[in-house]
Amino acid sequence: MKSFFYYITFLLLSFFVTAQENSPFVNGFEETISSKILEQQRKVWIHIPSSNGGNKIKDRGNYPVIYLLDGSENFNTVVSITEHMAESNLCPPMIVVGILHKNRLVDLTIGTDKELPEIVGGGEKFMSYVEKELIPYIDSNYPTTSYKTFIGHSLGGLTVMNTFLHNPNLFNSYVSLDASLWWDRQKVVKDAKTILPTQNYKGKTLYMAMANRLEKGVDTLSVQKDTTQTTALLRSNLEFIKDLSKNEKNQLRFKYKFYEDDNHPSVRLIGEYDALRFIFEFYKLKIYDSELKNPDFKLDSLLVAHYKNVSENMGYVVKPGENQINNLGYQMMGAKQLAKAETLFKLNTTNYPESANCYDSLGDLYLEKGDKAKAIETFKKALTLQAIPETKEKLKKLLKEKK
């Protein structure tokens, strides 16, 4: 539909209009969920991708979900990261659920610790609420897919790692940011020594970030000999990583990073970004200019293979976006690579057979080729799906010329 130049101009104008219309102060909205398990009213903050209009409409697509602990502190940064990455085609658009805590020490710990003996952790009960009430509620009321990511910082990271060990199938990917693995005499670290050798993590991804809390002249090797409380968090994480490295046969997709220039609070932002880049590194589609310029290169085959791999990683069928293929199709038309453009527009009609726009674009291709009979046929097909005024005009003109 329209010429390539017109289409690019429209996209640029749409970007500026959208930028003006969207409020810079609204990232999501708050919901209150009545929990029978916790016997409380629990609040969550929810972000719907801007590609879905930021609301619950379910006929525009379905999205993976990030479940984010300490939502009041982490929500805005993760929303900004996901929107930026999705816009850059580095990850799919995603729903973000920021979980708020009435008492994070109770929610995010299990058992107790000698340093805080008055705190009795309610982490098992809290995660039961997440699994049996929160996730089903989000799935019932929002356009979700089955892919879920769990992110936590500090005590939130402790909860992420405990869930990773004891309930690994609850989420597809886990992000631990400077986790408080020292809690309760390193119980999670000790659990890992017996669980990791027996568990299969095929299809699961884990990213661990650690902040720099070292004294001058101390590094991550020498600190492991230390016994003071000030290094307990870092030492606990390093020990967990050692045990992970011993169990490479468990098929876990795993990465960790020590952030030399970041402290405990600042590691959240950069760690969240790096984690999501790692988790979705399979998502980015790379097309070289030489491939675009080569008339014999099969762009449609590249797209099919890429999204087959994306689908395998996500656990469900993911198709290339209709607009993405349309853009490439018109780009090839503009470059006079009509055979390549035709394969792309036909791929779109295969993937989106109910889209009038896909058939209208294919009709434009036939017009460019001078095949008026096929253009008429294709425009008629488009109009059976949707009465697009522009398509009507093009068909009317062709039928008049035919007479």
Cα end-to-end separation: 24 Å
Which value, in Å, is the CA radius of gyration? 26 Å
Strand count:
10
Q: Helix segment count?
A: 15
Global structural class: alpha/beta
Biggest sheet, in brief? 8 strands, mixed
Average pLDDT number: 89
- Report the β-strand fraction as a percent range: 15-25%
What is the fold's blueprint, element by element?
Elements: H1 4-21, E1 29-35, E2 40-47, E3 63-68, H2 71-87, E4 95-99, H3 104-107, E5 110-113, E6 116-122, H4 123-141, E7 144-153, H5 155-166, E8 173-177, H6 183-195, E9 205-211, H7 232-245, E10 253-259, H8 267-279, H9 289-293, H10 299-314, H11 322-334, H12 338-351, H13 356-369, H14 372-385, H15 389-402
Helix pairs in contact: 1-11, 2-8, 5-6, 6-7, 11-12, 11-13, 12-13, 13-14, 14-15
In words, what does this structure look like?
50% of the residues lie in helices and 16% in strands. It is an alpha/beta fold. The strands form two sheets. An eight-stranded mixed sheet has the order 1-2-4-3-7-8-9-10, with helices on both faces. A hairpin with a 2-residue loop joins strand 5 and strand 6. The longest helix has 19 residues, at 123-141. The chain is elongated and about 90 Å long.
